[in-house]
Amino acid sequence: xxxxxxxxxxxxxxxxxxxxxxxxxxxxxxxxxxxxxxxxxxxxxxxxxxxxxxxxxxxxxxxxxxxxxxxxxxxxxxxxxxxxxxxxxxxxxxxxxxxxxxxxxxxxxxxxxxxxxxxxxxxxxxxxxxxxxxxxxxxxxxxxxxxxxxxxxxxxxxxxxxxxxxxxxxxxxxxxxxxxxxxxxxxxxxxxxxxxxxxxxxxxxxxxxxxxxxxxxxxxxxxxxxxxxxxxxxxxxxxxxxxxxxxxxxxxxxxxxxxxxxxxxxxxxxxxxxxxxxxxxxxxxxxxxxxxxxxxxxxxxxxxxxxxxxxxxxxxxxxxxxxxxxxxxxxxxxxxxxxxxxxxxxxxxxxxxxxxxxxxxxxxxxxxxxxxxxxxxxxxxxxxxxxxxxxxxxxxxxxxxxxxxxxxxxxxxxxxxxxxxxxxxxxxxxxxxxxxxxxxxxxxxxxxxxxxxxxxxxxxxxxxxxxxxxxxxxxxxxx
Length: 479
Ligand SMILES: [Fe+2]
Known about the structure:
Keywords: Glycoprotein, Hydrolase, Iron, Metal-binding, Signal, Zinc. By secondary structure, the protein is of the alpha+beta class. Helices cover about 20% and strands about 25% of the residues. Residues about 1-5, about 5-25 and about 465-479 have low confidence and may be disordered. The structure holds fe (ii) ion (FE2).
């Protein structure tokens, strides 16, 4: 298997080089078109939404990182009929649970909907890089799952992330989810817009949050999904008497925000393997002096590239996008944070929101001055690559109209559904793939080797650490 993996990795590199030779720096607008499956949600009686057997059996099971360093998880689930137990039993052998942790539950109402009992339990003190089994629910209807903790953070720790956005619950969403589950992804970076339940009325809003929780459980119960929020999580509905933004999301999904000294669950950071991941909220204040602004400034100082070389930012609204959909919506955040993204050499910024795929070159527009004018993104080796993966497949369909001509900053764009994987190999190299959903098949379509912005761009650092790169592919184009 390893031999084949190496072969495909080399093939990836060759494709990238061919791409560069063939196209120079011109951006590519993919001409791929395929008949899209109907963008309607899957009916609620479909088996993908099936409830588990047994009275009051836990459902909608999902896990996320529970601390800053990766030694804790938050395990969440819903019991439909009665509170039941909030306990998690866990251990390193199947059906032998040496440990347990006690969580808590709550419920909420939304318009005419009343939720089940939503449980959250922090499981901490875990060993790194270890397979655990866990059990939740009462004995006669208990359910068992497993997860694998990440390796201890270190500069050359390999790790594979999946990146999914704007998923929803259509047949296209199902295709994306299934394709991701076929990959070797170990954790998901989710870039906002989960269930699209807000497109329903009254109690159906809650019902579609429940169905989405069951829909994604085959992945979310077994590996952490790191959440960021999108506009479909806001759910500000004065006509329904619902005035508290993010109510359903905050009741159902947890983030480890306090561990990164954030004051709000909607923005936070974690270290995981060789990556430092910063999650931002497009829909919370972020201009100067706001809590999110102050927190991000301080969090960027806490990034230790000697320990976690890969600096990744997640945010829902793309900063750079050349689709007609949501064009320039990210401009306000760009004007506030882009300077920091460049000065801190962020590797990549993943966004959703636009229901298509797009990858930028390394560009910045930090010299814009409102007095003197002249506002053009220019090539900048210190800048992040901006990647839009809002193509999970929700009921709103594809954003099919790209702006013409393709702007200089856009490297590759295609209006199809899919997901991405980022395989971090060591402190200098990561293999990246965007995988199109192609009539039931997963097709790697945009493949890039990323060189780390901190380690690979500094010759001095690389010379000092020459040994760790031996055997790596050193002649690839720098993206
Ligand atoms: Fe969105």
